Amino acid sequence: MHKERILRVFSALLQMLLAPLWLPLWILRYRGHALDGVLRARETLVRETWVNARAQRSGLVRVNPFEAFPGLALQKGFLSAEHWGSSHDRVEYPLLTALCAHLRPRWIFEFGTFHGEATLLFARSCPEARITTLNIPGRKDPKLGLDFQQRSELLMEEKIGICFRGTPEASRIEQILLDSADLDPSHHQGRYDWIWVDAGHSYECVCNDSDKAFEMVAPGGYVFWHDFDPTQKGVVRCLTERARSRKLCWIDRTSLVYWRAPGEARPKSF
Description:
- The structure is a single chain.
- By secondary structure, this protein is α/β, with parallel strands linked by helices.
- The protein has two domains: 2-58, no CATH class; 65-260, Vaccinia Virus protein VP39 (Rossmann fold, 3-Layer(aba) Sandwich), CATH 3.40.50.150.
- The chain has helices at residues 2-17, 19-29, 34-58, 65-68, 87-103, 117-125, 148-151, 203-216, 233-242, and strands spanning 61-63, 107-111, 130-135, 173-177, 192-197, 217-225, 249-251, 257-260.
- Strands 1-7-8-6-5-2-3-4 form an eight-stranded mixed β-sheet, sandwiched between helices.
- Strand 2, helix 6 and strand 3 form a beta-alpha-beta unit.
């Protein structure tokens, strides 16, 4: 263990020393979005040191999605205009919706509706799925705390879920306005084939939502998390802790983490 730690530290130092060589390549790779290229280069440097080291220590597994989910490449990924802000989202959301279409969940639960972009994408990916999406009521501080970055993202109630309102998919979406700290998971135990955790990013919020998701997911179902990256220390801390007792997988080149519940998945209805 001591030898492995020395090797990780040496690897991190080597990457930092070689940064003048590969940082410009990252920036050039995204030359159409120069600032985005700089930010991604910085994020990669941090991810490959601090975040990657924590992931390795916890046992969190890095996976290639096309190897972990055979047949995924045959699926179509959907995208909304709201997710066209950076190359980061242009990778993650099409991948996420392709995964949803590939796994074909019948029952979906979402922690963190926000404007409802992801909700709508899930609904379009799985035309027969029923979706329950939860968001804290408008402008209310979560009981378990809120990090500074997210405080500005608290929405007025009329803005929550605005993306799917009035769409054909809205009839399959149930909106719950409730602090997730008050959610009773026993009423949803073992029900959902797919759970998406992307609500409060404080350590306490992520742990609350994750532990409830573990109770609510059906046998053979999946829990997915967003924002496992250097800017979200609460997410990183919680998931690396949970990875010590469960096989959590980090999808390579993304901030997506998932866990498959043990047991046989129920038959698909479509």
